[in-house]
Structure formats: structure tokens, C-alpha cells
Write a structure and sequence with these properties.
The chain is of the alpha+beta class and 303 residues long. Helices cover 28% and strands 27% of the residues. Helix 1 packs antiparallel against helix 2. The longest helix is centred in the C-terminal third of the chain and has 19 residues. Bound molecules: flavin-adenine dinucleotide (FAD).
Length: 303
């Protein structure tokens, strides 16, 4: 049985700040999600180890939050603790020729901007993906022909029991939106990225171009969690959904984007239940009309 009194006392003792009943809608790009019992702000590696120890001692389940840009959090919230990696986890530094060492809490935007200003090429594809490095590694995020797999050389993490470990190369098991971290309780702490020397002006032009393409095709002005479904073999999810006449189809405040049918947007007041019903309706319709089974890419958070 989770013992929150034990957890609170242990966190206070080791100086890890936390809040109670923290609305997850404030921490997700969908602006959806009920309260988390505990929300822990973790500043550095020592605080992370102490927090994992406290969670184990109190038998409280946890979830590691990145930027919350690929998540669907239940309306009833989360009975457990959410870990937000802040402080030194946001650091980005140049450690060698084309080599960056980045904290898992750093945003892809800050890492891309750092790479550009150091005339390093290879990460432009990630410009505009609104995630943190940790979330991007967990998901093997990708766009416009690039994916994290191509630029990551080593990832450091903690096993759920707090044991530090690292993985490199094939052992990272990167696949289409999956990695060695998918469906585990491992906590990614940092990663080394290997980029190539380039020309800052050319890198900037490529980044601007990709951002422009993104803004012209995606409903970036409305809350969403990006593409709802994985790309089915031989198809595009958005085209299949559009071909079934589902653009604009809505359940409550959740609506299939008119701009890109692969996105569900929160047009105001959407609940997790609205999104889940809409996902189900899209899956059933697309299967019936086209024979293709769509598989969600967004992560439904369960503790
Ligand atoms: P979160 O959504 O917070 O979490 C995702 C998963 O990663 C969770 O299971 C979480 O527990 C885990 N996680 C996060 N940090 C850690 C950590 N430190 N250790 C262990 N596990 C961790 N995705 C793409 O791939 N390509 C795109 O082009 C793209 N475009 C998007 C456009 C929009 C407008 C939006 C809203 C989303 C888009 N996404 C895209 C989806 C999303 O941005 C990516 O999946 C991103 O990698 C998620 O990162 P995050 O930090 O927000 O992770």
C-alpha cells in the first residue's frame, strides 16, 4: 500500500521539493489531465537517487515526465508521483569534436539551438518537436527523415532500484517510436549526441525551412499531443483518417484537426474521456472503411 506520510517525510528530509494534487493539465501540451497525488521537482542526480529511494520505501508508483508533449493523462489524475527533471538536468555542453553531453530535461529546442550556434549539423530534424531529450529518447522521436537513433551515441539512466547504468549502439534498441526505455521504469538522466561540423547559416536555413513546413501543415496553434497514431505500414494515418471523412469529427472538446487529420486538437475543455472516445471512433471507422488498424503513438499514462 502506498504510504504518502512516509514519502512526504522522506522527501522533506532529503530536500526534494514537491506539491500535492498538482493538475497535470498544466504540464501536458494537450492541456488535459487530472491531479497527480505528488509532483516532485528534481534538481540533480543526487536528488533523483534520493527520490527513487523514498518512493521505494513508501511503495508509491512513479511516472517520469518530459515536456508532456506526447501524453494523455486520465481525468481522474494519477495515484502516485510524477517526477519532473529540472535544474542540472537541463544542461547542454560541448565535450569534444561534434560531441554534446545533454541532460535529459533539456528541451530539444535548446539542444538544436545550441548545435546551430556551434555550427553542428545532424539534429535539424528535431527543430519543432516540442519534447525534452528524455522524452525524445524514450520515443525515438523523429521527423522529416531524421530520428534520435541517428545522433545518439550513449544514454545514461537509473534502473528503478536506483542502480546507475548506460547503454550505447544496438543495445539502445531504437525502433519506430520505441527504445530500450519503452514500457520500463528506467529514468534517463543524460545522453551523448554525436553531430558533424557544418555551416551555421546552412543549418539555420534548414531549421527555418522545417519549422515553416511544420507550421503550414500542423495545427500548432491549438493544444494537441502531436500525431495520435503511428504511421501504418504503406500508409499515412492522416490520409486514411481524412479519406474516411473524419476531419472535424468531434467528441466534446476533442476534435480531429481540420488542418491535419492525424492530429486530435483540444478546441476547449476537452477531457481525456473525450479524446479516448474519439480515438476509438477513428480506429473503428478506419478499420471498417480501409481495413487498416491504427495504433496510437500518444502515451496514455497509467501508474
Ligand atoms: P513526454 O510526453 O513527457 O513523455 C513521453 C514518454 O517519455 C513518457 O512515457 C515518459 O515517461 C517518457 N520520458 C520522458 N522523459 C523521460 C526520462 N527522462 N526518462 C525516462 N522516460 C522519460 N514526435 C515526433 O516523434 N515527431 C514529431 O514531428 C512530433 N511533432 C509533434 C508536434 C506537436 C505539435 C506535438 C504536440 C507533439 C509532437 N510530437 C512529435 C510528439 C512529442 O513531442 C514527442 O514524442 C516527444 O519526444 C515527447 O517528448 P516529451 O519530453 O514531451 O515526453
Amino acid at each position: 500500500m502506498p504510504d504518502y506520510a512516509v514519502l512526504d517525510a522522506a522527501l522533506t528530509r532529503v530536500g526534494v521539493p514537491f506539491t500535492k494534487e498538482e493538475s497535470m493539465a498544466a504540464h501536458t501540451s494537450f492541456k488535459i489531465g487530472g491531479p497527480a497525488d505528488r509532483f516532485l521537482r528534481i534538481a540533480d542526480a543526487a536528488a533523483l537517487s534520493a527520490a527513487l529511494r523514498a518512493l521505494r520505501e513508501a511503495a508509491v508508483p512513479y511516472f517520469v515526465l518530459g515536456n508532456g508533449s506526447n501524453l494523455l493523462v486520465p481525468d481522474e489524475g494519477l495515484r502516485g508521483a510524477v517526477l519532473a527533471l529540472e535544474g542540472s538536468f537541463k544542461a547542454v555542453e560541448l565535450t569534444g569534436s561534434g560531441r554534446l553531453l545533454c541532460g535529459s530535461g533539456a528541451s530539444l529546442a535548446s539542444i538544436c539551438a545550441f548545435a546551430r550556434s556551434n555550427a553542428l549539423t545532424g539534429l535539424e530534424f528535431a527543430w519543432g518537436i516540442p519534447g525534452s531529450l528524455g522524452g525524445a529518447l524514450y520515443m525515438n522521436a523523429g521527423a522529416y527523415g531524421g530520428e534520435m537513433k541517428q545522433v545518439v551515441s550513449r544514454v545514461w539512466f537509473l534502473e528503478p532500484d536506483g542502480t546507475p547504468a548506460s547503454l550505447a549502439g544496438e543495445a539502445l534498441c531504437f525502433g519506430y517510436r520505441t527504445s530500450a526505455f519503452t514500457n520500463t521504469k528506467r529514468v534517463i538522466t543524460k545522453a551523448e549526441l554525436q553531430l558533424e561540423s557544418g555551416a551555421e547559416a546552412e543549418i539555420a536555413v534548414k531549421m527555418d525551412d522545417l519549422m515553416q513546413r511544420r507550421k503550414s501543415k500542423q495545427p500548432v496553434e491549438l493544444p494537441s499531443a502531436g500525431s495520435v497514431f503511428k504511421r501504418p505500414e504503406g500508409h499515412f494515418a492522416g490520409s486514411l483518417i481524412e479519406s474516411c471523412g473524419l476531419k472535424g469529427c468531434a467528441v466534446g472538446g476533442a476534435c480531429v484537426s481540420e488542418k491535419h487529420a492525424g492530429f486530435i486538437v483540444n478546441r476547449g475543455g476537452a477531457t481525456c474521456a473525450d479524446v479516448e472516445k474519439l480515438i476509438e471512433h477513428i480506429q473503428e471507422t478506419v478499420l471498417r472503411e480501409t481495413g487498416v488498424q491504427l495504433e496510437p503513438e500518444i502515451r496514455r499514462v497509467r501508474l
